[in-house]
């Protein structure tokens, strides 16, 4: 069977499964919540409490979770049966998680190594993450250079009691950032005894090693003794997975064997940077400066234009092109990794105490460490200048050269007394008498210098609170939180600008045989760059609630409260001296104090009708204020059916990266020149479908957007509403359906017309016309940096490398969809119980309304500029089926589904979603990424008094990630947000836990 036939078969199987899933797809139902939220791991000695709880999104205790707002609850029992072992995977499995979701597998973004959720696809900045109802410090590096979020990797998993996901706006309760929804991770309140778990596993390919251990110990019967103390620790390690280990198509950008495009020019073009150096003779206008190479090629017409240095060192064969012979490389296969090395550990503790019969208190402390080690492709010798540096330091424009002469000092070598001919320059001897005409322009990748980063993130967090009651009338609470997030980022392999000049002029670096270079030479050329950054949050919350009087349906309750919160960020510039090629200059600084007052009123008007109203006023020290109201209702005409709905307004305050006057960044997105440009530069095909034809200048490259903070920005605002039904015709089955609609206005965007600016640039005939065309797009748009000219077509328009764009409040976005859920809980026999829970989200619309038209994202790769550019799948869902055989044995199958995605993105220039706008450039071919289904199987057996042994097979049927050729070049042909399990493949895990 060939690959194409196999792929067609997989599509048929996936489509059939999708049809089956779509008939049941849902989000956790209200009845399921009442059944599932009771923590299966609660200790037998836990204190007895009443059956009231506080559900995320309300200030009141209530007897059930059937609030007017849709809430999904993930219990530890559900997560264990799904084989999930960290908070990131748990939360990102929610079907409401959409575009902009960040997984640890996305390693090339600004905040690589962090993980975040993006509810409703509105971005990580529009999702509020709480721990026990309180905020935490944001990850010190902003996603996409400006989006703020809490790193999910920093939250201890073994202490999780349950995770509640509120899927509508909640600014009226929690303030800023809750536009898309709220994730509240609830940790254990008390624990008595000793509990531990050990887990290990391996992928079927022999890698992706996984180890995890946790231990919790506690004492003090709170019910009888009035106190409880527990401590907890956990450790997790996950090994690397290379692209090479997963084979085609995840280890190459050459899809020509299945009818795609060959974007791997490292095995066919001598102007592609690779570990073999290629040189061609050019002029050198300043013999003391390697950055002053000329544009025109000076080789004789009857000689090859390019010469390979060290051609005899080729390990994968050679290729012959019209301009010379070179070594074959597939750089993705040789250097890239799918999963980084990850290590996490944490220590946590809590003291709960009763001050009196009416006052209770608690104190918690936690420390978590998350380490991520990323390997990347080695750095190259031709680079643009760092963002903010002078164009004169660019090594790509017109091109860095090896001089004819070298000397010990590296200064004025052409006239130095101790000068020698440059052994790295094959033209040196012939042009010893005329060194200005014998320079060797070089294309090279430092394959002997490992490139990557180590990211250590330490989060310190402490909370304390007192809760009590006054005269059986007023319930009050005061809670405080302090969180400090410290990040240490160590970058490896980035080339120092001055050191490169020195190494070239002294000849200390061997380009002919790089294996002979000493570690000292490599370290001097690419010293490690260490950058510390940190963020801090502290807040004090206080509220009181009171039952005012009794209505026909129950007690009318009122809650009022206030908050004061301080936040700060110091995200330091990794390249503050502008002395290193390719290293980002993104930075963000700021601090503010927020004061807020809020209220909530809950009125059970009748037994059949509950009405809820709330509001919050927030004032920011920057000078702006915002009032956020919310209204909700729940109507239950019969026990079998209920209707519910909410309306709310919310806001997202500008992040420090967006508004800080000292903040800046240059973000890069994979871009492919339009076909007309490719054809002009030697490509083949037509204006709709074209190929680079071996010219690397025509292939996908990184196009930057340069932007600085704008202190005049105003908050984003939102309007959202939900309407749904809860149906429970029989006790063992329930169903919910909720429609949501969110409008986010006054969006804070970076260059909303960047696509128009790029199109205007490429449509121009020369550089001056291109600069004028980009400037005509609007204020703040300009050409910052252009590439060196195409060596094969030096008289044509060069590519743009960075286009300046403004931060502005502009446009509005509307997203809508349907959440569905169903739960069945049947006792098949006296000893066999079957539980089936299914949840899913169907995205109806996701539209950005701009001055030039509507950008439609639903079911496409749009918004491509957001985070990992993994798009907005229309349908996501999860279905868990469990058979329990008495009390001793259970078998669970958890199925996850992601619908197909069209490889177009209307934020990339064209508002059309037709396949003619395929980002891959092949029209109808490869226009869709196929649906994806994975199945995780878990078998658990109880033993002794509290022991559990489990065997898990993740991705049991070894489903492969569907091919996504338009994905970012850093993740060739796959989508890390949705298809990660299909990259790792089948995994085997085993765990044993005990409790006593």
Summed up, what is this model?
The chain has 996 residues and is mostly beta strands.
Layout of secondary structure:
Layout: H1 3-22, H2 30-36, E1 53-54, E2 61-62, E3 71-75, H3 76-81, H4 87-92, E4 127-131, E5 160-166, H5 171-174, E6 181-187, E7 193-203, E8 210-219, H6 222-225, E9 227-238, E10 241-242, H7 243-246, E11 278-282, E12 307-308, E13 318-321, E14 324-327, H8 331-335, E15 337-339, E16 341-356, E17 359-376, E18 401-402, E19 405-406, E20 420-421, E21 439-443, E22 451-470, E23 474-492, H9 497-506, H10 519-525, E24 529-551, E25 554-571, E26 588-606, E27 609-620, E28 625-638, E29 641-652, H11 656-659, E30 664-671, H12 675-680, E31 684-685, E32 690-691, E33 701-708, E34 716-730, E35 733-745, E36 748-750, H13 754-762, H14 767-775, E37 782-786, E38 800-804, E39 807-809, E40 812-827, E41 832-850, E42 853-856, E43 875-885, E44 889-898, E45 901-902, E46 928-929, E47 932-943, E48 947-954, H15 976-984, E49 987-995
Parallel strand pairs: 4-6, 33-38
Antiparallel strand pairs: 1-2, 3-5, 5-6, 7-8, 7-49, 8-9, 9-16, 10-15, 11-12, 11-21, 13-14, 16-17, 17-22, 18-21, 19-20, 22-23, 23-24, 24-25, 25-26, 26-27, 27-28, 28-29, 29-34, 30-33, 31-32, 34-35, 35-40, 36-39, 37-38, 40-41, 41-42, 41-43, 43-44, 44-47, 45-46, 47-48, 48-49
């Amino acid at each position: 069977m060939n690959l194409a036939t196999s792929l067609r078969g997989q599509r048929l199987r996936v489509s059939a499964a999708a049809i089956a899933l779509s008939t049941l797809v849902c989000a956790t139902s209200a009845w399921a919540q009442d059944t599932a939220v009771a923590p299966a791991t609660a200790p037998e000695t836990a204190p007895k409490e009443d059956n009231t709880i506080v559900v995320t999104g309300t200030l009141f205790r209530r007897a059930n979770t059937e609030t007017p707002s849709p809430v999904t609850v993930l219990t530890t029992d559900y997560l264990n049966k799904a084989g999930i072992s960290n908070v990131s995977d748990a939360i990102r499995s929610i079907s409401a998680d959409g575009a902009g979701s960040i997984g640890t597998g996305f390693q090339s973004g600004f905040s690589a190594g962090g993980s975040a959720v993006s509810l409703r696809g509105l971005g990580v900045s529009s999702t509020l993450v709480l721990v026990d109802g309180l905020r935490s410090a944001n990850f010190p590096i902003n996603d996409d250079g400006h989006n703020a979020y809490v790193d999910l990797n920093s939250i201890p998993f073994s202490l999780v009691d349950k995770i509640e996901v509120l899927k509508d706006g909640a600014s009226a309760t929690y303030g800023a950032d809750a536009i898309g929804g709220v994730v509240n991770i609830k940790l254990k309140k008390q624990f008595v005894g000793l509990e531990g778990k050990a887990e290990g596993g391996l992928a079927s390919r022999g890698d992706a090693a996984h180890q995890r251990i946790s231990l919790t110990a506690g004492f003090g019967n709170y019910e009888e003794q009035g106190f409880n103390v527990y401590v907890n620790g956990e450790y997790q390690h996950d090994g690397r997975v290379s692209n090479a280990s997963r084979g085609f198509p995840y280890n190459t950008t050459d899809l020509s064997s299945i009818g795609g495009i060959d974007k791997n020019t490292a095995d066919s073009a001598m102007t592609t940077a690779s570990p073999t150096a290629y040189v061609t003779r050019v002029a050198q206008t300043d013999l003391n400066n390697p950055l002053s190479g000329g544009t025109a090629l000076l080789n004789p017409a009857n000689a090859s234009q390019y010469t390979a240095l060290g051609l005899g060192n080729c390990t994968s064969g050679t290729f012959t092109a019209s301009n010379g012979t070179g070594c074959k490389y597939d750089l993705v296969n040789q250097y890239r990794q799918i999963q980084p090395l990850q290590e996490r550990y944490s220590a946590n503790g809590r003291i709960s105490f009763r001050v009196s019969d009416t006052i209770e208190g608690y104190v918690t402390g936690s420390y978590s460490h998350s380490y991520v080690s990323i390997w990347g492709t080695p750095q190259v010798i031709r680079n643009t200048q760092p963002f903010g540096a002078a164009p004169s330091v660019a090594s790509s424009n017109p091109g860095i050269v090896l001089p004819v002469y070298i000397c010990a000092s590296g200064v004025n070598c052409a006239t130095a007394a101790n000068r020698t001919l440059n052994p790295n320059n094959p033209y040196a001897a012939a042009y010893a008498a005329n060194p200005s005409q014998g320079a060797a322009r070089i294309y090279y990748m430092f394959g002997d210098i490992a490139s990557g980063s180590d990211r250590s993130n330490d989060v310190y967090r402490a909370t304390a609170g007192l809760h009590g009651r006054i005269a059986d009338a007023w319930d009050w609470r005061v809670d405080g939180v302090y969180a400090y997030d410290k990040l240490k980022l160590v970058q490896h392999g980035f080339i120092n600008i001055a050191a490169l000049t020195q190494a070239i002029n002294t000849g200390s670096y061997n380009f002919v045989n790089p294996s002979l270079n000493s570690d000292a030479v490599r370290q001097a050329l690419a010293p490690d760059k260490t950058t510390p950054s940190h963020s801090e949050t502290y807040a004090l919350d206080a509220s009181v609630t009171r039952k005012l009087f009794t209505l026909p349906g129950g007690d009318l309750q009122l809650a009022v409260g206030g908050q004061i919160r301080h936040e700060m960020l110091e995200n330091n510039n990794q390249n503050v001296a502008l002395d290193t090629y390719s290293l980002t200059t993104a930075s963000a600084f700021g601090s503010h104090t927020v004061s807020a007052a809020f209220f909530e009123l809950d009125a059970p008007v009748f037994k059949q009708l509950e009405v809820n109203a709330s509001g919050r006023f927030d004032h920011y020290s920057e000078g702006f204020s915002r009032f956020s109201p919310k209204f909700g209702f729940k109507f239950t005409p019969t026990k079998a059916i209920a209707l519910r709905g909410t309306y709310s307004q919310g806001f997202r305050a500008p992040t420090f990266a967006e508004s800080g006057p000292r903040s800046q960044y240059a973000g890069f997105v994979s871009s492919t020149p339009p076909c007309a440009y490719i054809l002009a530069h030697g490509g083949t095909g037509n204006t709709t479908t074209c190929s680079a034809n071996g010219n690397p200048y025509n292939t996908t490259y990184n196009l930057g957007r340069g932007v600085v903070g704008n202190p005049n920005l105003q908050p984003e605002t939102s309007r959202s509403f939900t309407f749904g039904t809860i149906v429970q015709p029989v006790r063992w089955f329930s169903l919910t359906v909720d429609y949501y609609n969110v409008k986010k206005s006054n969006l804070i965007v970076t260059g909303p017309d960047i696509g128009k600016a790029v199109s205007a640039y490429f449509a121009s005939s020369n550089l001056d016309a291109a600069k004028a065309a980009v400037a005509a797009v609007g204020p703040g748009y300009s050409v910052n940096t252009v590439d060196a000219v195409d060596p094969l077509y030096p008289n044509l328009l060069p590519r743009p490398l960075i286009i300046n764009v403004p931060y502005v409040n502009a446009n509005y976005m509307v997203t809508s969809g349907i959440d569905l859920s169903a739960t069945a809980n049947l006792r098949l026999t006296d000893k066999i119980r079957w539980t089936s829970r299914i949840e899913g989200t169907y995205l109806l619309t996701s539209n950005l309304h701009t001055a030039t038209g509507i950008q439609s994202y639903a079911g496409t790769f749009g918004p491509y500029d957001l985070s990992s550019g993994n798009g907005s799948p229309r349908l996501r869902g999860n279905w868990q089926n469990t058979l329990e055989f008495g009390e001793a044995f259970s078998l669970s199958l958890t199925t996850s589904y992601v619908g197909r995605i069209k490889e177009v993105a209307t934020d990339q220039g064209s508002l059309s979603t037709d396949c003619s706008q395929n980002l891959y450039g092949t029209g109808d071919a490869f226009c869709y990424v196929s649906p994806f289904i994975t199945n995780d199987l878990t078998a658990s057996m109880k033993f002794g008094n509290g022991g559990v042994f489990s065997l898990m097979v993740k991705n049991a049927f070894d489903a492969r990630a569907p091919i996504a050729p338009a994905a970012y070049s850093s993740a060739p042909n796959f989508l890390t947000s949705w298809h990660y399990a299909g990259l790792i493949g089948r995994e085997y895990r085993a765990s044993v836990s005990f409790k006593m």
